Amino acid sequence: MGRAILLDKVNIPGIRAFEVYREHGGYKPAGKALLGMTPAQVQQEVIKSGLRGRGGAGFPTGLKWSFLDRKSDKPRYLVCNADESEPGTFKDRYLMEKLPHLLIEGLILSSYALGVKTCYIYIRGEFKYLVGILETAIHEAKKNNYLGEKILGTDFSLEIYVHPGAGAYICGEETALLESLEGKRGNPRIKPPFPAYKGLYDCPTVVNNVETLATVTSIISMGGDAYSKLGIGKSTGTKLMSACGNINKPGVYEIEMGLPVEDFIYSEEYCGGIKNDRMLKAVIPGGSSVPILPADLILNTAKGQPRLLTYESLAEGEFISGSMLGSGGFIVFDENACIVRNTWNLTRFYRHESCGQCSPCREGTGWMEKILYRIEHGQGRMSDIDLLVRIAKNIEGNTICPLGDAAAWPVASAIRHFRKEFEEHIK
Ligand SMILES: Cc1cc2nc3c(=O)[nH]c(=O)nc-3n(C[C@H](O)[C@H](O)[C@H](O)COP(=O)(O)O)c2cc1C
Ligand code: SF4
After folding, report:
1. Is the pLDDT score of 287 beyond 50?
2. Cα 84 to middle of ligand 1, angstroms
3. Ligand 2 pocket test: which of 175, 400, 409 has the largest number of ligand atoms within 8 Å of its C-beta?
4. Spatial CA neighbour of 78 closest among 101, 106, 59, 99
5. Residue 377, exposed/middle/buried by CB under 10 A (0-12, 13-18, 19+)?
6. Which of 178, 357, 359, 365 has most ligand 2 atoms within 8 Å of its beta carbon, as the pocket-test mutant?
7. Class at the top of the CATH hierarchy for domain 18-228
8. Which of 14, 25, 89, 131 ranks highest by number of CB atoms within 10 Å?
9. Torsions phi, psi of 120, nearest 5?
10. How far apart are the CA of 138 and the centre of ligand 1, in A?
11. Residues 383-417: pLDDT tens digits?
12. Whose CA is nearest to atom 6 of ligand 2?
């Protein structure tokens, strides 16, 4: 299953530099598209590929692009979401650090397809060291006429700007990101209107994740049809997984969609098994916002099928007996891990990062955190467990943005699968 599409060049010495990247086939897809394809044909390849957004929700990229308001006479924008603040997720930063030109080329191709002349990379404040890497790559691409005016002698012109945020998780949510890019506090907007109609500066805008946009380069290189043949069903292609926790080999891995979870955890090619030969206890498979699954349910679905790394297989099961592929932040817990302490820790994070606009999220995250603190510190009451479930239910679906759900699911799923552990803490 080990198939490197995005990371195939990652170990080439000096690949971060324009010349080395070009010597190894880099910028060929950009030349192929700009000199031989119409923007509509580039978009068609992305539709054919079946690519789904790698930022978390898995929304089909070609479909999202087709929503862009092309009748408006306002400028259009492409915004690359490089905020990557989801706990457990560190694949975009790896991609930008190792292969900055792969992303820049993806931005050129996507901007061409969308008719965009200005593109922003919104990068989280803590990634300051990456700003220089990206700006150098932009400068090199511009010097070689892959950016700027009349690229490769065509009528297509494009500027890319890197904009560091101030380090807030909520600025990864696309409308909060746009507010922040406009220089305001990063508060999520009420949708509709969606960014495709009213995005940056009220203009038609597409927001896509770093990995999604870098993948466009691979799709144009190999063709949408060939890309769609990788993976299983509606989970096409490859996915970057950032694996961490109690495993022997934490790191970023590119997997072909459909790899069994068991292989990912135990094979030497990927996580290399559980540290110190301990037993697997649980996994959060898609970044901290998705439901946690105990060992039996992460390795096999409730129907006894092997669980696969696909959007569909990870979600299989009635709500919370399944989880999500999300951003691919794969967090592994061994038998010694304390689920209560972990849930308290995550809830502390969401309480801190809530922007405070909606009462269920603002009040609910703080309330859950207080209750989890007292359970973890030996002052819990038995009634606290159902109280937590009720609070989580009242947050879920009742907020402006999905941060509310992201705070509710870890609590609800931890109690559903590890209620005994909460009871033991209280006793
Ligand atoms: C609280 C919150 C944080 C998010 N953080 C990120 C992030 O760091 N990076 C990202 O690409 N998407 C993030 N998203 C998802 C974005 O809102 C958006 O769906 C995504 O950038 C779209 O890109 P894609 O279609 O390529 O996945 C976040 C969503 C929420 C609700
Ligand atoms: S759900 Fe939370 S983070 Fe999102 S808008 Fe409401 S208060 Fe802000």
Report:
1. yes
2. 8
3. 400
4. 106
5. exposed
6. 357
7. alpha beta
8. 89
9. -115, 140
10. 23
11. 999 999 999 999 999 999 999 999 999 999 999 99
12. 358
Within 6 A (CB) of ligand 2 lie: 170, 188, 354-358, 361-362, 399-401, 403-404
Ligand 1 mean position, distance from CA 225 (Å): 26
103 closest CA partner among 13, 12, 223, 212: 212
Q: Which atom of ligand 2 is nearest to the CA of 356?
A: 7
pTM of the predicted structure, to 2 decimals:
0.97
The predicted pLDDT at position 320 comes to 67
The dotted CATH code for 232-334 is 3.10.20.600
Task: Name the residue type at position 392.
Answer: A
Residue 397 exposed, middle or buried by CB count within 10 Å (0-12, 13-18, 19+)? exposed
Residues 96, 211: Cα–Cα separation, whole Å: 9
Q: For 339-426, which CATH class?
A: mainly alpha
Residue nearest to atom 24 of ligand 1 (CA): 53
Q: pLDDT at position 2, please? A: 58
Q: Is the pLDDT of residue 215 over 70?
A: yes
Ligand number with the minimum distance to the CA of 239: 1
Return phi, psi of residue 55, to 5°.
-80, -15
Question: What is the token pair recorded at 156?
Answer: 């297509």
Q: Where in the chain is the domain with CATH 3.40.50.11540?
A: 18-228
CA distance 136 to 101: 10
Residues of the chain with CATH 3.10.20.600: 232-334
Cα gap 82→253, rounded to integer Å: 18
Radius of gyration of the chain (CA): 22
Does the structure show a pLDDT above 70 at 319?
no
